[in-house]
Amino acid sequence: MSIFSGRRSQGALHYSTPTPGMREALAEEISKDRQSARFLTAEANSYVYACCLRVVAQLGVADLLSDGPMRVNHLAERVSADEHALYRVLRLLATRGIFRETEAGVFVLMELGASLRSDARFSVREGISAATTPAIYRAGGELLYSVMTGEPAVNHVFGESLFDYFGSHPSDGAEFHSGMGQYSVIESANFVRECRLPETGTVVDVGGGQGSLLLMILQRHRGLHGVLFDLPPVIANHRMGELEDANRCQVVGGSFFDSVPAGDVYVIQYVLHNWDDESCLEILRNCRRGLAPGGRVIIHDMIVPPGHEPDQSKVLDIVMLSIVTGRERTRQEFEHLLHAAGLRIVHITPATLGALSIIEAEAA
Description:
CATH architecture of the largest domain: 3-Layer(aba) Sandwich
CATH class of the largest domain: Alpha Beta
Low-confidence stretches: 1-6
Number of helices: 16
Strand content: 15-25%
Shape: globular
CATH superfamily of the largest domain: Vaccinia Virus protein VP39
């Protein structure tokens, strides 16, 4: 009931006169409602920022601004874009501190936008294209299907799994895998700097892709040997030829659901989040079988923190819900998985510069 409620007396409806206090209470109530409406509307439109990031990443705008400010008409000419449309995209991203309009129609690349450059130390230009690829966006638009069924929406949208879709759409697949490789290089640099590895022995990179992580490990730890293990099509263009001593590494094709090569240390970087618990157990149990005495399984993955503070892992967990059967996991969920596979956690290095934590486990 409104605070300005009416009352009946002898058949007539009479209204009380609102007091100043009642007016203030109503004004505060309306203000809160408006604030909620504005906040929720802005949240619903937040995907637009990602769309704009995809545009400037694909056009290479940051590379063109690497030498200093440039007029938007010149930028548009260089990338064959519509001047006014490009201006509107840059204007929005300027509200996030990625670009700045120094004078009318002149933009400069800001520090927050530096990693959009192709030559940046930690460039994410290709990574942004991968994260915003239309296949993932379309699956996100059908998130309700995943919430109602528990199944990836991407299967509902395309009639096949995400990776099957990328296989049947090579250009989309190339964009995605290239971008994920870029993220992998950034996280791999954090891993080799912070992970505790033995001086000698064999490191098996399980699901290691083209070998960026293993290459960094072997370059830093000269006493180690390595095995790059992944599906044959994935390792076809591996990077292990960049290693000075080719005898220190083997490249082996196969499925980690069948078996894995024997080793002293198994490294699993950002693989388990792609799979449901049952599939993860198959991978971990295969590693446990091939583990040498005293050896370890080292997982490089996100750990979802407790509580409800904002965290990138909680965002990516919803992405995973819509595109694959996997998920980002809490520490307790990793503990349960590892225990079921005959392993126990002995050390965790929390994520610092990167997004992934390092979980070391050994035979229970």
